[in-house]
Amino acid sequence: MAGIRILEVGVMLAGPYATMLLADLGAEVIKIEPPGGEISRQVGDSYFASLNRNKKSVVLDLRSDEGRERLGELVAKSHALLVNMKPSAIKKLGLTYESLRRYNERIVCVAMTGFGLEGGDDPAFDYVIQAATGVAAMTGNPEDPPTLPGYSSADNSTGLAAALGLLAQIVSGRGGQVDVCLRDVMLSQLNYKAAAYLNDGVEPKRYPFGAHSYYVPAQLFDTADGYLALFITHDAFWRAFCAEAGIDGFPTMAERAEKRDEVLAVVSKVLATDTAANWEARLKPLGIPVAAVRTLPQALEATPEVIVDAGDYRLVGSPIRVEGYSPAYRPPPAVDEHGDIVAHSS
What is the Cα–Cα distance from 299 to 306, expressed in whole angstroms? Predict the structure, then answer.
């Protein structure tokens, strides 16, 4: 993305994550910060670095006429602007295409909000969205309260969707407004579960150990030491598993689904005879989808190739790998480190 300039008026996670992915791919990303810096700087240095590497920083007071004028100078020589704020703040600060097109007809303006640019200002934090879209209700064991994933799945997913929308509009060659909201992204990611309800009236159920609603066995299992994720989606996997585990019967996917409890009882009993690590070592070479449950530190230790250095920070690198291209990971910018960009933009 060399030669592409993207402006970011981002807060905390969703917006900054979207533009960081684009910066990793070579775009020039200019982070527009308020006086004193973006609020996530107060969370901690490693937090800020994890979402803002490879960017430049320019401080503008967008509440002032001077700040908006200087923003217009940057917009005139940029390809896109991405912002994640409440809709009323986006409009008040003039961060929409209608407000900025006078500087650049081809500017792409991406608004990331909770419920859409015209959806109102109700608070839309990640966990609130997970609760509102059914994610929490379908997560956890049936007898337990609803639960939430241990990371910001709505914010991160919306960042990915916003980056895709931004790129699509740039490729189109037209300027315009792109509207991406957390609620719609999470509902979109419930694709087949939503389709089952909309077309067949089937409401999602919670099963013990996070079991899949269609495939059996496909869930977590307790072993002699640790938990194991086993995901058997078709009969070939099942046959290979049975040969290694010494199990007979239930040869078809349909029979295993019909006799879920019987299958799980047999599989649970045999998996309890060995450790999760040993089962992974035994089953992986057979091509069976399986993994021992690891902590984050264990997962990072097992995949050192994903860890990169960005100045003094060790971070997880870009998940997008392009043949012939290697990101140059740079540390996050200091507040207003690149303030002279505005002076040289006209």
Answer: 10
Q: Is the pLDDT of residue 31 over 80?
A: yes
Nearest to 267 by CA among 245, 284, 285: 245
Instruction: Compute the residue count for the chain.
Output: 346
CA–CA distance from 271 to each of 92, 246, 262, 286, 313 (Å)?
59, 11, 14, 16, 40
**DSSP reduced 3-state for 245:** helix
Looking only at the bridges linking them, the beta strands covering 5-9 and 80-84 are: parallel
Looking up residue 175, the CATH number of its domain turns out to be: 3.40.50.10540
Q: Letter for the amino acid at 93?
A: L
Same domain, 141 and 266: no
**Is 261 a residue of the active site?**
no
Q: Are residues 178 and 232 part of one domain?
A: no
**In terms of DSSP bridges, do strands 307-310 and 313-316 run parallel, antiparallel, or are they unpaired?**
antiparallel
Catalytic residue among 24, 126, 155, 184: 155
State which residues form the domain around 251: 227-292
Distance CA 128, CA 113 (A): 13
Same domain, 276 and 243: yes
What is the rounded distance in angstroms from the CA atom of residue 41 to the CA atom of residue 323? 34
Q: What's the pLDDT score for residue 343? A: 61
Residue 80 scores a pLDDT above 80: yes
